[in-house]
Design brief:
- By secondary structure, this protein is mainly α.
- 72% of the residues lie in helices and 2% in strands.
- Strands 1-2 form a two-stranded antiparallel sheet.
- The longest helix is centred in the middle third of the chain and has 24 residues, at 68-91.
Length: 203
């Protein structure tokens, strides 16, 4: 069982220390992602705290997550989008997420709710990932499926940090060159790749 799975199971059985460890492990990751989407740091921080409070309160009934990192990021972005809409309704002000106005365009995560579009993109990415050289495919799986950082990847593979970084960068360039990404934020692209590698593993 991975460390993520151990912490998740600890949360589900009410282990406060494991819950806090899970929170500390992902707080800065979620903060970084949130600040990429909007500049209201306080709202981003509040949303992270509310998400984890919700998880604690619902710990006995929350679903088992196949990929804890993906689950937390997706849940956080969904909640952040909802919180923005609530703020907009309450203040009557125009609220923005990323570079687009919520009054004029849906945010990237809402665009991903178009199931036909998402299915097409995930299927396309699955095919492109499978076409990668074995080493690049392995590194993409480690990065996006197992959620390893570069230090963990280096220890797992024996590659240098520079080599691991370059190969993942090359793989991402190949994936991005096959899809028109202009309408998506970096976070939305990240989520699509996670969905694609998850589907490859299930197959």
């Amino acid at each position: 069982m991975s460390n993520n799975e151990t912490l998740w199971q600890g949360l589900k059985v009410g282990d406060r220390q494991m819950f806090l460890d899970l929170y500390k492990k992902y707080y800065h990751c979620l903060l970084f992602i949130g600040l990429k989407e909007m500049k209201d740091a306080q709202m981003v921080k509040d949303t992270i705290q509310q998400l984890f409070l919700y998880l604690w309160e619902k710990r006995e009934t929350i679903e088992s997550a196949r990929n804890i990192r993906s689950y937390l990021i997706t849940s956080f972005l969904r909640k952040l989008s909802l919180d923005l809409k609530k703020k907009q309704r309450a203040t009557g002000a125009q609220v923005t997420m990323g570079n687009s106005s919520m009054d004029n365009q849906p945010n990237p995560e809402e665009r991903l709710e178009n199931k036909d579009q998402q299915f097409h993109l995930v299927k396309l990415l699955m095919g492109k990932i499978n076409e990668l050289p074995n080493r690049q495919k392995e590194l993409i799986m480690l990065k996006f499926y197992e959620g390893l950082n570069y230090g963990d990847i280096v220890r797992r593979t024996g590659l240098t940090h520079r080599t691991a970084y370059n190969k993942i960068h090359e793989a991402l360039k190949k994936l991005k060159s096959s899809v028109v990404w202009e309408q998506y934020s970096r976070t939305a692209i990240f989520i699509l790749i996670i969905h694609a590698v998850n589907n490859i593993v299930r197959i």
